[in-house]
Amino acid sequence: RQAGGVRTIVLNNPRRRNALSLPMLQSLRRDLLHDVKSRELRVIVIAAEGPVFCSGHDLKELSSEDDVKHHSQVFELCAEVMTLIQKLPVPVIAKVNGLATAAGCQLVASCDIAVASEKSQFATPGVNIGLFCSTPAVALGRSLPRKVALEMLFTGEPLSAQEALMHGLVSKVVPEDRLEEETMKISQKICESSKSVLALGKATFYRQITQDLDTAYKMTTKVMVDNLTLRDGQEGIEAFVQKRKPVWSH
């Protein structure tokens, strides 16, 4: 559903613990990409029904009854969705209320922002069933200190919401009854900014984060100059000088 610039995508298969089955991944990709360049879309929130945010892959799809080609399709589509989140021109917020495990934990780590309720937990327990969480480790290793990520991966033990906050896996932890309010507060604040400026900023952030310091500063210096050539870049500065509220063209 979408209202006021905010699109909310709800994982809605609580009977299967919102597992990232092929149909779920295909649906998630479709809903993330739908009319994504529209001026009306400013923020995407990924939420879930039921006590489990997402349990990761549907293990029934990974049994020996299916061949290697099918298994490859599952993991390749999952990787595509996770990387897509960072390539989208709008911020993506994970709204977590419950357990996020394996690829579900990967989904949270892949989002730009994550707001969690106090009862939420995060784990990569694949090692306990003989399937090491190697693809979740990509997102986890880029969100957490290495030793924290590896302890999660080696033991399968969960992080509490507060531990996830302390180590940087989530942005904010709130009581369950304030989760919707806090997520919307962040979303609405983002909606006050120019979509074109945010799109440029998000893309630049993910480009520079993998570069060495000198390369990152060289690249971002050029981006700052490019930002000034945007209509909204000029509008924002003029509005500040004139002490008025900017009128964004997006």
From TrEMBL:
<keyword id="KW-0276">Fatty acid metabolism</keyword>
<dbReference type="InterPro" id="IPR052377">
    <property type="entry name" value="Mitochondrial_ECH-domain"/>
</dbReference>
<dbReference type="Pfam" id="PF00378">
    <property type="entry name" value="ECH_1"/>
</dbReference>
<comment type="function">
    <text>May play a role in fatty acid biosynthesis and insulin sensitivity.</text>
</comment>
<dbReference type="InterPro" id="IPR001753">
    <property type="entry name" value="Enoyl-CoA_hydra/iso"/>
</dbReference>
<keyword id="KW-0496">Mitochondrion</keyword>
<keyword id="KW-0443">Lipid metabolism</keyword>
<keyword id="KW-0809">Transit peptide</keyword>
<comment type="similarity">
    <text>Belongs to the enoyl-CoA hydratase/isomerase family.</text>
</comment>
<dbReference type="InterPro" id="IPR029045">
    <property type="entry name" value="ClpP/crotonase-like_dom_sf"/>
</dbReference>
<dbReference type="GO" id="GO:0006631">
    <property type="term" value="P:fatty acid metabolic process"/>
</dbReference>
<dbReference type="GO" id="GO:0005739">
    <property type="term" value="C:mitochondrion"/>
</dbReference>
<dbReference type="InterPro" id="IPR014748">
    <property type="entry name" value="Enoyl-CoA_hydra_C"/>
</dbReference>
<protein>
    <recommendedName>
        <fullName>Enoyl-CoA hydratase domain-containing protein 3, mitochondrial</fullName>
    </recommendedName>
</protein>
<dbReference type="GO" id="GO:0016836">
    <property type="term" value="F:hydro-lyase activity"/>
</dbReference>
